[in-house]
Amino acid sequence: MGMKENRLDGLAIPKHVAFIMDGNGRWARAKGKKRTTGHREGSRTLKNICKVAYELGVEYVTVYAFSTENWKRSDEEVAFLMRLLRQYLKESVQEAEKNNMRIKVIGHIEGLPRDIQDKIELLEKVSIQYDGLKLQIALNYGGRDEIVRAIKKINHELETDVLQHSDINEDLVSRYLDTSGIPDPDLMIRTSGEVRLSNFLLWQLAYTEFYFTEKYWPDFDKNALEDAIIKYNETERRFGGLADET
Ligand code: FPP
Known about the structure:
The chain has helices at about 25-30, 35-55, 75-100, 115-125, 145-160, 170-175, 220-235, and strands spanning about 15-20, 60-65, 100-105, 135-140, 185-190, 210. By secondary structure, the chain is an alpha/beta fold.
């Protein structure tokens, strides 16, 4: 009671929020720092947002950490991101326990360095026992690549008679994606002013509300997430149906 107000009182909290964490480089440049400093700050922001989101009642968070296109960046930047990732995956084993987090990596995992694959395997194995926030980290991820990999898996099941052509429908396709079993995002937030999808969760975002903010990812905080949730509550989700006229 007292001074503490809750800006989200009475509002619907999205069950699943997806983030395109954009603007680390621009955040760093604006401060006269190296791009890599921006990425390090961005990984801190990720840890904070996971805690904050869960406290607000969000159950699933999915973040775009490294795309299939990000390999085109300078060797130096790719090497730094891989180092940061190693550190993040290592620390996340303890972080998951502390915050009761279940972490899963989505994307073309076999295309990542072997030691990173091992760290992912360990982290997923350890954190499967936790039932707090479910965090999906997209690594070496591309939406089209994910769909192509799903088609190949389905094709293999057809050839080996595990599946019949008549089994193929939208639910089945969803189950062959990396996000199998995870509800589609209700809200997708992209920071840093860019208004595009950049090959993120192409299938899963079909009915998702989008929120774009000028803020750079390292500046994204609890207040910014609350702003997004307030805006989310101002829109009415119809899933292709008609507005309720009553
Ligand atoms: C976008 O900023 C960010 C990335 C390409 C990498 C995302 C990585 C993090 C937020 C931190 C690392 C996360 C983990 C899990 C280790 P940008 O470089 O495209 O920024 P710019 O558009 O301003 O140049």
